[in-house]
């Protein structure tokens, strides 16, 4: 076993503390393994880990699938304790994390000894971005991570090209507003079409604004990626996607993320065109969270009034901070995580109390459980954006909407910035009222919310 005391930077606790944590590794019975598969793992896979299947998301809300999954996880923790629970699955050890402290530790000590490039993730991402940083290990991972961080200016709430991006956001959201006003209604499809025009401009440049063929091709490959090992690679379509992206990088608009990536690329092995599908991919759940935030504000008039006051104090130019609107967005991500499972794999045996996790164990962080665990988290099922105002992501509390640690999503500041700008324009130009407010009970919000069927009256 490697020396684990210096694996994570800063003031993170030593991984050696796992050896004395009292949280032992347990082995689930066959019955409990079957129940965990039925209530937690299979519904998550059925909804689509890389791209959501609309029908399954609708069914998940109607049947309360995530509520059932959270209760199942709580039941397992009460029965087995809060240490990792190894499921009785042959050939591939799988362990559910049941403690927010273990989540904090595992994410803090990624990518070693807990790698994010699990075999499952490599198989899924191999359908459309095999050279992406998330599927990479070792030196390649470090170099590609650096390129992504430099491009996205990780850690900065306002990107240096933010004013240019704000113009793109305003122009595309204005077209969404005009269409919504003409119909008297804002639905998902109207919003998402405009959102993706905006995304293509930001990521690839104005020349890509109407290149829906590219994003449709990526969407099809993501559907294949949902099944990871179970579907063969569509190599011709993957090559077509990556070749098109390579051309965009080679002729990149300076004020686009592709242009910035081209400027910072120092090594062809950084494979910038393999990083860009993830940018387009990441904005998809960004749209889901934005639409859900609008729904939350519609049924929480007190917060909506505070957001309106915040917007009234900003100018239409530049990139304002908008701390409350950004906090509302983060709270929507807490309530309905767009990354339902964070995956890690042990690169070596890891001691856990007086027990051990074997090398090659696949660790599953089921984020809805930790974000809605009313046994450990106050106000778990209510909308409380103030928990995020002027605060960083609190992984020690199990709140990890963008993961955490050295493998945290490098766009953890960038996507909320863009989403806040988009929502600012919609909320300033439109009066939006949720057409089915009964779907959201402010006293106990459902654990699943189908963004595809949300709609608003617009005036």
From TrEMBL:
Pfam families: p450. It comes from the Bacteria. SUPFAM superfamilies: Cytochrome P450. GO terms for molecular function: heme binding; iron ion binding; monooxygenase activity; oxidoreductase activity, acting on paired donors, with incorporation or reduction of molecular oxygen. Signal peptide: none annotated. Belongs to the cytochrome P450 family. This is Cytochrome P450. It comes from Devosia crocina.
């Amino acid at each position: 076993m490697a020396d684990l005391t210096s694996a994570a930077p800063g003031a993170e606790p030593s991984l050696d503390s796992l050896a004395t944590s009292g949280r032992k590794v347990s082995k689930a019975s066959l019955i409990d393994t079957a129940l965990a598969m039925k209530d937690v793992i299979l519904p998550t896979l059925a909804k689509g880990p890389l791209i959501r299947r609309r029908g399954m998301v609708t069914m998940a809300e109607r049947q309360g699938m995530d509520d059932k999954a959270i209760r199942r996880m709580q039941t397992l923790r009460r029965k087995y304790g809060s240490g990792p629970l190894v499921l009785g699955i042959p050939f591939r050890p799988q362990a559910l994390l049941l403690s927010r402290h273990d989540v904090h530790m595992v994410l803090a000590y990624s990518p070693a000894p807990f790698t994010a490039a699990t075999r499952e993730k490599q198989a899924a991402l191999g359908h459309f971005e095999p050279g992406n940083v998330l599927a990479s290990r070792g030196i390649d991972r470090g170099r590609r991570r650096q390129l992504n961080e430099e491009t996205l200016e990780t850690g900065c709430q306002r990107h240096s090209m933010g004013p240019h991006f704000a113009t793109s956001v305003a122009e595309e959201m204005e077209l969404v507003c005009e269409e919504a006003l003409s119909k008297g209604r804002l639905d998902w499809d109207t919003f998402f079409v405009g959102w993706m025009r905006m995304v293509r401009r930001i990521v690839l440049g104005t020349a890509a604004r109407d290149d829906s063929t590219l994003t449709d091709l990526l969407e099809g490959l993501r559907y294949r990626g949902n099944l990871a090992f179970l579907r063969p690679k569509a190599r011709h379509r993957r090559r077509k996607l990556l070749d098109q992206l390579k051309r965009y990088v080679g002729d990149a608009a300076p004020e686009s993320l592709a242009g910035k990536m081209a400027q910072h690329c120092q090594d062809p092995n950084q494979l910038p065109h393999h990083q860009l599908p993830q940018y387009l991919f990441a904005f998809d759940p960004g749209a889901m969270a934005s639409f859900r935030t609008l729904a939350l504000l519609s049924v929480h008039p007190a917060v909506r009034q505070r957001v309106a006051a915040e917007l009234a104090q900003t100018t239409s130019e530049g990139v304002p901070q908008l701390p409350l609107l950004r906090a509302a967005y983060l709270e929507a991500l807490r309530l309905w995580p767009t990354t339902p499972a964070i995956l890690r794999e042990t690169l070596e045996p890891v001691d856990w109390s007086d027990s051990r996790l074997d090398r090659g164990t696949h660790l599953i962080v089921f984020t809805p459980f930790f974000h809605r665990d009313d046994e450990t988290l106050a106000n778990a099922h209510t909308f409380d954006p103030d928990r995020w105002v002027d605060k960083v992501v609190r992984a020690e509390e199990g709140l990890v909407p963008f993961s955490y640690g050295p493998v945290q999503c490098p766009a953890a500041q960038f996507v909320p910035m863009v989403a806040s700008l988009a929502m600012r324009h919609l909320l300033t130009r439109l009066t939006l009222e949720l057409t089915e407010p009964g779907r959201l009970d402010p006293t106990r919000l459902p654990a699943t919310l189908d963004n595809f069927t949300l709609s608003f009256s617009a005036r």
